[in-house]
Write a structure and sequence with these properties.
Helix content is 46%, strand content 16%. It has helices at residues 19-30, 43-50, 66-80, 103-131, 153-173, 191-200, 202-212, 221-232; strands at 10-14, 34-39, 56-60, 85-88, 136-140, 179-185, 188-189, 219-220, 243-246. Strands 3-2-1-4-5-6-9 form a 7-stranded parallel beta sheet, with helices on both faces. Strand 2, helix 2 (43-50) and strand 3 (56-60) form a beta-alpha-beta unit. Bound molecules: nicotinamide-adenine-dinucleotide. This is SDR family oxidoreductase. One of its GO terms (molecular function) is oxidoreductase activity.
């Protein structure tokens, strides 16, 4: 498993302490990159578990707070010496009918998924521009950024926002040699979805996977990590402002 140009690179992964972000930390270490993770919790556990694979460290951080993000970027820079790749992955979400969403819940999801993506993306981009780093940024959107899944109005809106943030970053940062892309995973088995699955029950989940996903199963976090690795690598050297869908064919259904 090798993507061109990742070995020896410095990679910052937000939300790298669980699910897709943790799988990404593992994948980048396997590619020979040096990794710095942040998350709300589990930093020490993930660093301890993945340390045998290579150089990894991290910090606890809430990406929706600018002070935390400033500290995150300073700590990552101190640990790695610079940032070549940002995997802008942290996010949250839950099911809630549109008619019942409170302004507080709306604000929470927007603060983490969209404001947090902006804050970390801007802070790392400023660092890259200052250092003259021809870096790569991959933002986490979702298939929910491309279609309006029922009971996810706040989440869908935040992920749609990530796609236009990504395109605008690509337009403005391309001239600095910084590539910016997004990934749009569909249904992936992670702790985030485990809670939702527990609410819906195993029969609903099995029927959903059978009826809505042509490959007939949920994706694995490592399958999204592979897309992150590709988009961050030199193998994607002319891929810019794009969104890569990883959904087992879910969006192909009419
Ligand atoms: N699981 C899916 O089916 C799926 C599909 C499409 C997109 N996504 C997106 O993938 C990303 C990762 O999700 P996951 O399924 O791996 O979930 P997860 O809950 O397993 O992991 C989420 C990670 O983000 C971190 N995080 C959450 N809020 C944060 C905050 N305010 N500040 C810093 N870190 C924060 C958590 O600590 C954790 O490390 C999210 O952006 C999610 O929206 C997930």
């Amino acid at each position: 498993m090798t993507m061109r140009g990742l070995s020896g690179k410095n990679v910052l992964i937000s939300g790298g302490t669980s699910g897709i972000g943790e799988a990404a930390a593992r994948r980048f270490l396997e590619e020979g990159a040096r990794v710095f993770v942040c998350g709300l919790d589990r930093v020490e556990d993930v660093v301890a578990a993945l340390s045998p694979l290579g150089k990894i460290s991290g910090t606890t951080c809430d990406v929706s707070h600018e002070d935390d993000v400033e500290r995150l970027v300073a700590e990552a820079t101190a640990a790695l010496g610079g940032v070549d790749v940002l995997i802008n992955n942290a996010g949250t979400g839950w099911r809630e009918p549109f008619l019942e969403i409170t302004p507080e819940h709306w604000d929470t999801i927007m603060a983490v998924n969209l404001r947090g993506m902006f804050l970390v993306g801007q802070a790392v981009s400023r660092l890259m521009v200052r250092a003259g780093t021809r870096g790569s940024i991959v933002n986490m959107s979702s298939t929910n950024g491309l279609g309006g899944e029922e009971d996810y109005a706040h989440y869908n809106a935040s992920k749609g926002g990530v796609l236009l943030l990504t395109k605008t970053m690509a337009v403005e940062l391309g001239r600095h040699g910084i590539r910016v892309n997004a990934v749009c995973p569909g249904y992936i088995s992670t702790p985030l979805n485990a809670g939702i699955e527990a609410d819906l029950g195993p029969d609903f989940v099995a029927a959903y996977q059978r009826d809505h996903i042509p490959l007939g199963r949920a994706g694995q976090a490592a399958e999204v990590a592979a897309a992150y690795a590709f988009l961050a690598s030199d193998d994607a050297s002319f891929v810019h402002g794009a969104e890569l869908v990883i959904d087992g064919g879910q969006l192909a259904i009419m």
